[in-house]
Structure formats: C-alpha cells, structure tokens
Amino acid sequence: MKHLLRLLATTSAAIALSAVNASAQSIPKVSIEVGETSSPTDLSTTLQIVLLLTVLGLAPSLLIMVTSFIRIAVVLSFLRNAMGAQQLPPNQVLIGLALILTFFIMTPVVNQAYDEGIKPYLAEEIAGEEAFAKTTEPFRKFMLAQTREQDLALFVDISGIDAPDSAEDIPLHVLIPGFVISELRTAFQIAFVVFIPFLVIDMVVASVLMSMGMMMLPPIIVSLPFKILLFVLVDGWYVLIKSLVESFHM
After folding, report:
1. According to the model, what pLDDT value does residue 51 have?
2. Burial of 128 (0-12, 13-18, 19+ CB in 10 A)
3. What is the mean pLDDT of the chain?
4. Which of 79, 203, 214, 237 could form a disulfide with 209 if both were Cys (CB 3.0 to 4.6 A apart)?
5. How would you label 195-224 residue by residue, b for 16+ Cβ within 10 Å and e otherwise?
6. pLDDT tier for residue 15 given thresholds of 50, 70 and 90
7. How far, CA to CA in Å, does 215 sit from each of 133, 203, 205, 211?
8. Alpha helix stretches (DSSP H) within the chain
9. HSE on the CB side for 242, CA within 13 Å?
10. How far apart, in whole angstroms, are the C-alpha atoms of residue 42 and residue 23?
C-alpha cells in the first residue's frame, strides 16, 4: 500500500512538473523597454510600434472627421426621425450602412494615398516627411472639394494665420474643422428635403383625425404605415443612397 501511494505521489508530481514546463514553454514573453540602441533599425521599429498604436487609437476619429461618414450618418439619422420609427432601423444597421458607403466612396482616395505615400515609404524609397505629405494629399483634395470657402475663411481667421495664397497652402488643422462644418451643413440641407414628404403625410393624417373627432389617437401611429408605403413605392433607399453618393465631389 505504501509503495502504491508513493508511486501515485511520484506520478502526480511528474505530471505537475511537466505541465508547468509545458505552460512555461507555450507562454511567450512580451516586454517593452526603453534603452540605448546601437543601430537605427531598432529605433525605427520602436517608433513604428508607437505610431501604429497611436493611429489605431485615433482611427475612429479620423474615420469620422476626414471622410464622407459625417454626411451619410447624419442624413440616415434624420431619415429615421422623419419616418417616426425611433428604433428602426437599429443604430447598428445605420452605422454599418454608413461605414459601407464610406468605404465605397473613399476607396479611390485610400488607394491613391497608399500607392503614392505609404507604399514607397515601406519600400524605403521616400522619407517619412515626404510620405506623410503624399499620403494626406488625396484626403486634402477630397476635403477641399466638399468644403465651402466661407467655412475655410472662418477657421483661417480664427486661427490667426496669414491668408494662404492657394488651397494647397491651407494647413490640416484649419482644413479639417472647415470640412466638418461644411459636411454638417450639406447633411442638414439633404435632411430638409427628406423631411418634407413625411411632414406632409403627418399634417394630412392629423387633419383627418381631427375632423373625425379622434383626438385621443396619436397621429404618428396612423401615419407611420403610410410613410413606409410611400418610401417603398418611390424606392426610397435607392433614391436616397444614389443622391448621397452623387452629392460628393470627387
């Protein structure tokens, strides 16, 4: 009996030791340290990791501020409010549709930025400063095409810089807020046009219910089916998406 217990204890200890060794071999060690370097390659790799983490953290803001996402998301939100369906389509669907359309519209811009800036930089054909300028140039052209001169002049005046000689001389910290303001203005203009037919339906339904003495019945409940029917009959999604995509000047 003692030999059996000793054998079981020895076997258990061996299994535990092997498990510890296996776990120690399977778990990689990851560490980040700051110290001296003997070659520029090490410094470049460290900076690339830091820049990559920074870009990943700022990616949502960059996606919203320098692309077509603002206009599309605002118009789709106004459409849902105009129809009176507060929860349909869900937010996930609207944001997903806005992201898909943004990807479709911005693909030529992103491809140009990659081919002219990022790809040569990764191939070590151009320096970092030149790569940044060539990468942001397609986005700069896209934003300038959508931005009003009045909005640009506003932020140029607020920033206190000298009036630029040409659009290419406008710095990004002035161009981006001007682009955002212009996008919001355009989105509200499109939303106004979208609201009109649904507003007419609400007024007609409210007048009919009032004339029939049905004061306690909310007009929005009765008008919602007619709004959906109108939107389906005119092929609303096709018309709206077509108008949104064509509203961008490329």
Report:
1. 72
2. exposed
3. 76
4. 214
5. beebeebbeebeeebeeeeeeeeebeebbb
6. very low
7. 63, 14, 12, 9
8. 2-26, 40-65, 69-83, 91-113, 119-122, 128-146, 149-159, 172-211, 219-233, 236-246
9. 6
10. 30
* Burial class of residue 233 in the structure, from the number of CB atoms within 10 Å of its CB (0-12 exposed, 13-18 middle, 19+ buried): exposed
d(CA 73, CA 219): 27
Is residue 244 a contact partner of residue 72, using CB atoms and an 8 Å limit?
yes
DSSP state of 115: I
Distances (CA, A) of 77 to 140, 192, 243: 27, 12, 16
Contact 201, 224 (CB under 8 A): no
Given a contact cutoff of 8 angstroms between Cβ atoms, the answer to whether 227 and 84 are in contact is: yes
| Owner of token pair 């009919």 | 208
Report the candidate in 197, 179, 193 with the shortest Cα–Cα distance to residue 233: 197
Residue 213 DSSP one-character state: T
Tokens (6 digits) for 78: 């106004």
Amino acid found at 104: F
Q: Is the peptide bond before 40 cis (omega within 30 degrees of 0)?
A: no
Amino acid at 7: L
Least confident of 38-42, 70-74, 126-130: 38-42
pTM of the model: 0.69
Amino acid, single-letter form, for residue 246: E
46-92 residue pLDDT tens: 666 777 777 777 777 777 788 888 888 888 888 888 887 777 778 88
Confidence of residue 154 (pLDDT cuts 50, 70, 90): confident
Above 60 in pLDDT, residue 115? yes
**CA atoms of 222 and 205, how far apart (whole Å):** 7
